[in-house]
Amino acid sequence: MNKIVVILGPTASGKTDLSIRLAKKYNGEIISADSRQVYKGLDIGSGKITKKEMKGVPHYLLDVADPKRKFTVARYKKLAEKVIKRIQKDGKLPIIVGGTGFYIQSIVDGTIIPEIKPNWELRKKIEKMGCKEMFIKLKNLDPVRAKNIDKNNPRRLVRALEIILTTKKPVPEIATKKITYQVLKIGIKKSSEELKNLIHKRLTKRLKKNLMIKEIKNLHKAGVSWKRLEEFGLEYRIVAQYLQNKVSFEEMKSKIQIDSEHYAKRQMTWFKRDKKIIWVDNLKHSKKVLDSFLETL
Questions:
Q1: What is the number of structural domains in the chain?
Q2: How many CA atoms lie within 13 A of 76 on its CB side?
Q3: Are the C-beta atoms of residues 24 and 57 closer than 8 Å to each other?
Q4: 44 three-state secondary structure
Q5: pLDDT digits (tens, 9 = 90+) for 281-293
Q6: Residue 245 belongs to a domain with what CATH number?
Q7: Against a cut of 0.70, is the pTM above it?
């Protein structure tokens, strides 16, 4: 069976829960498509699934990278393609789950992300601009990428500009190679109000007993610099600022909530460009869509 299922959607929409239910019903194994869950130690802040939550379903591409080092989309693509072949060889259904559009696109849409080696001199020049100036430059050079990037995430801004300035092309470069497998993309549909409430509920859980704060404090103690932690964006950036006394506890909470809501909007902007995504709002609808896909030759 040369088929792949993708479960995608904005942050906090319920991708993990749905993916486990579908994997258990359809003999599937899960490949994470999350740009922070690839890193060891980024657990609570990234919403990484626990062993208990997996319910026996094998998961791949979690904890495969050192948080002190950069992990590229090109590297993700290589690892994911190997895992997909292994899962299919075992007669199982590969289910890609996540909200990182570039990761998903690199696998199922034939997109080639150029493997550009770090240019440290160029990066130093780009970093001097600061997020605001970097974003303006990116908007001028590649407005499509600027529409869905986190404009407060220096790591992604630097990488995008590095690729553009090195290749003299927008990022990503679209490949012409033919995709050899059939793909079903299921998107989880939530209203903005629902997402706002889900994000708030998740944040309250992550801050319970200061669990997320302790995680980020421990990462710093283990040698991950404040600068590097801030590069991971969202919770990691804002909690790192809190731990450096740059913002108060209440400011931290408010910023995480607001930035997460904005991030969800950017994710939806990215996903809405793809007309092949079938949007569902419950488990029953998901099963109906998946049954129809698996029945086709």
A1: 2
A2: 31
A3: yes
A4: coil
A5: 999 999 999 999 9
A6: 1.10.287.890
A7: yes
